Amino acid sequence: MFMRNFSSQLLANIFEALGFDWQSIIAHLIALIILTVGLYLLLFKPVKRMVKERQEKVKKIEQENSDLNEEVKKMKSSTEVVLSEAKKQAAVIHENAVKVANQKADEIVADARREAKALIERTEREMEEERGKLQSDIEKQITDVSVEVAEALLARKITPEDNKKLIEESLARWSKEE
Fold it and tell me: Domain spans of the chain?
């Protein structure tokens, strides 16, 4: 007990030397507790609530960003699919255009060949007609010359029957010679 008394006295002497008494210490402790509770209620709880709200906002924004990233990825993949389909359609259209152009070219070539063939046939017919006319003219001239020569040789007039007979004989001889 002596120690206890001594230590409490020593403590009391230190407090007196510093100018403290037990009542002021208790008042200060009560004030400190009230201040701590007041600060806890007035500052710590609202700040803690504000921090929690901000964390929730940040989580919400992160979730929205994640959702948007997913949507962007989906849109990108769908865009790639659409682009791929568009390229396929463009290739089909190009291929069809080439086919149509080749068909048109074939039709134009076929038309040109038909026209050329028709022109050749028409030209050959015209040449055949001209050959026939020339042959007819040559035969007439030969006939006239033959008649004149025969008239001069015979010194008489040849009748149309004689003329016909001479022509047929001459043509028969020429046909054998050719």
Answer: 2-177
